[in-house]
Amino acid sequence: MTLSDYLFRGSLADLDPDVADLVNLEAERQVRRLILIPSESTIPYAVRETLTSAFHNIYAEGYPPEETRRMTEAQILDADMRLAEYRRYADPRYYKGTEIANLIEALARRRTAELFATEKYGPDSLFVNVQPLSGAPANSAVYTALIQPGDTIMGMNLLHGGHLSHGSPAARSGKQYNAIFYGVNPDTERIDYDAALALALQHKPKIVIGGFSSYPWAANWERLRQIADACGAVLLADIAHVAGLVIAGVYPSPVGIADVVTFTTHKTLGGPRGAVVMTHRADLAKKLDRGVFPGEQGGPHMHAVAALAVALKLAKTETFKELQQQTVSNAMHLAAMLSKQGVRIVHGGTNSHMLTVDCKPFKGADGTALSGDMAARLLDLVGITCNRNTLPGDLSAANPSGIRLGTPWITQRGFREPQIEQLAEVIVHVLKNAKPFAYTGGDGKPDARAKLDFESLTFARREVSALCDRAGIDYELPVVGSRMPEHGRYHLSLGFLKEHPKAIEIRGTESAIFLRTALTSEVYDLQPGEVQHAQMLGADGAVIAECRLEMMGEGVYRLHFETDGATGAAWLNALSDGFVIHDPTDQYGKIPGPVAIRPVADAIMPAVTLPDAASTGVKDYFVGAHGPKLTAPTPEPLPRFMWTAPTDAPLKRTPLFELHKSLGAKIVPFAGYEMPVWYTGVSQEHAAVRTGAGLFDVSHMGVWEVSGPGAQHFLNGITTNDVSALSVGQAHYSYFLDVDGVPLDDLYIYKLGVNRYMLVVNASNNDQDWAWVNAVREGKVMVDPARPGARLLPKPSLVTLRDLRDPAQGAERRVDIALQGPKSLDLLLGLPGSDSEKKKIKALTWSTVTQVTLAGFDLVISRTGYTGERIAYELFPHPDQATALCKTLIDAGATPCGLASRDSTRIEAGLPLYGHELGTERAFTPADAGFGGYVKLWKPFFVGKAGFLAREAKRDAVVTRFRMDNKGVRTPQPGTAVLDKRGRVVGVVTSCSIDTEGYQTGQAYLKQEFATEGTAILILTGGAKAAKSDLTLGDKVTIPDTATVLSRFPARKK
Length: 1054
Hints:
The chain starts with 11 loop residues before the first helix and ends in a 9-residue tail after the last strand. It is α+β, with helices and mostly antiparallel strands. The longest helix is centred in the N-terminal third of the chain and has 23 residues, at about 320-340. The chain folds into six domains: about 100-315, Type I PLP-dependent aspartate aminotransferase-like (Major domain) (Aspartate Aminotransferase, domain 2, 3-Layer(aba) Sandwich), CATH 3.40.640; about 320-470, Aspartate Aminotransferase, domain 1; about 485-615, Aminomethyltransferase beta-barrel domains (Alpha-Beta Plaits, 2-Layer Sandwich); about 655-700 and about 815-905, Probable tRNA modification gtpase trme, domain 1 (Gyrase A, domain 2, 2-Layer Sandwich); about 700-810, Alpha-Beta Plaits; about 955-1054, Aminomethyltransferase beta-barrel domains (Elongation Factor Tu (Ef-tu), domain 3). It contains 31 helices and 38 strands.
């Protein structure tokens, strides 16, 4: 009777249909893409079949009997004799049950030796280890076997084409060993072997490594041998990429020249993932074996060793040799065809399986060069898979300027010269039609991006699809199961362009705003079950499709095409991907997304229940809105927002005014309020912020609430930062711009709940800002000069605005108190309160917000501030509790600080102030202030975007910090001229105050070429200069004081 067992019987599709679908999806991806990654290949089906064999189930630590190295293949396969020997003598492995593993590993070793044997070193003279799990462990095993940690190794510079495992600082080889690097001559772009020799003689490496991951020319093994001999080093030849080429004789073999040879088995060799270590030196063989096991790894993957044996047998065939020859021929032809069409091939060409392309010559309108990452992503979107790659001259692997192209996989699928020429045409088409540009990143540095027009994208996809359809495969194309979302399949092919869907489903958390932007209709009006008519427009404003949009449920919509849906569905898919140009006036914008799109079979066309909102022409933005072919009605233009500040208004007082007086503060008028400028002095209060905890009255600043179902859309439209990126409990800095791109104010936005935000604005601009946001909400003022009748909201009721300082808000009123400095957290945690409330405070990271009860006070508390301190908080109590709260904080150790130290600390930190580095009569923008990263140009629309971009195109200066070289000089006032060493005006001071060390530190708007840290400048601290005609003998003139430009921001405190 058969035992009741625990074996899981059944196919993958039976037991795990989800994974089966993913496996099939990957199999289809490999058919639907032209894969040009040099380190990848499609391994023969027989090799894949072997990988699923029962050899997977066993451990086999150790090695086969040593005598099998010198056995012929026939002797190894004499299983009866070999097993008889096993039964009598066993084997040196640590596990039993490895008798068959011995045979398969011995077979793989022998086949390797036979394929790599030379006239001088036959297969019996080669010592082969087939156990390394991949290339990096193989190289690490060599290091472990032959040298000690801290020893010097020399390999090729990763940025010039080397490999991580050859000493890169990011890899273990660079961390454990002292790595030095040779590279290419910058003029010839070929390896400079003379320079490599000089390096070797200088540093005396223990191992010299030859072999490359992106250098396309064959290695000169004899020169590398000479270099190794000159310094007494071991020569390691890593032929991971070219092992198949070496076997076929189309790449020079290092066997017998190099002391040790390593290679991976899954690249041009076309085998399973794994690696080989090989030497002709008997004195190194056992060391290398011990380096692999137990030095680097435990049990080998015997199923991979078995699969390798299969691949090695195939490598003996004439077909394999022809494959390698054609692979090299294809790479050389691809390089020639690309070069012929104006593409720069790095290193001047290739004689191997790969080449590298320089993307830098392809530049956008703003001068941004096409990056390797963007080129690879655009090519991937059209179906050509490659990788970004560093080039000689790149500063780091994080920002490569090239792409690497390899021909092994496409050659396996049958590509020859005619197909290579078609492929080259598509690559050139994509690269030349790419439109590079750059956002300003959060660190202020350019963040390169690129887009394609829809016509170029579609052309390239069609061409690639046609090539894929003709290319060979060695398995039946799988059908993705019903459990796998159909959208997955449309990721892999032309999909919509082939099938002409009548209806599609769009779903995702961003689906509503995606469709509102992509279509002309007012999607926010839809409720589940309702249907509205909409048009889908192209970037030029021409109609792509007439549609009916049906809301199926939260985040799920169905779009029915009244006309052919092929182009419309493909257009939506491209918009979701985010790399297609959708506005001829704005290359930066990106439609919110992504969304999942799939066709809906047998969908019934529903009746329309709501009109098309775009028929009125007032919708703030939609794709095609700025296109020259737009035919939408033009509504009456709205007026520009105008603001006239009241004159002679009486000064106001904050809830803390009496406390300021009792503490002896010097009171001055500021922003319409009577405010404390200092209590004891700016230097003392500045120091308190930097070393303790400074307490500031900022309750004069505006505190608002914006809520309602349209709150996110509204705030995203009136501010520059990306409000959709905020989660509940997060906050960010942002700007209000007018329609010309000039700041109305800077502000902070806090997300307190779903569709509920708190805003803090400057006191001096509060009334103006309040009037402006209300006018925009009500649709009374212009938001887009290009479409002056457009309105941000379809109806004002979608948003509720509340002034939280207004007495009418009762118990929900809030004012702002700032507690800044390194001891602020300790001070807060020292106040009475529950552990759970204090835990919430301790959990706050920068720009986050929570609500707590502390010392009996109901507080909204954020970790934010404007002094440059990272341990900094803003507390929002009810105004009636503000005085008691401040007294409590002072009693706990906080130092009252006035406006002067608030200004001095923010200046020292390089932070802008409205009226100084923002706005003013010079109309300074956020980018002028060095804060362009807070203007998210990927948003398709916000008020002032077009004006900001127009100003940015002309900008040639930026605000940066400076420090007077000497103490005791007069403080430069805003508007003071900044001079270069020849007396030419190159900038203007915007702010200045005393810093922590007693120097005058300020900010100035300087021409870009003078804004570099360390630049010497002159500042006219003594006032305006006299005209030449006014000067007579004996007159005195102002001698400018010297100063030095600092970094834009000080080093962040840890």
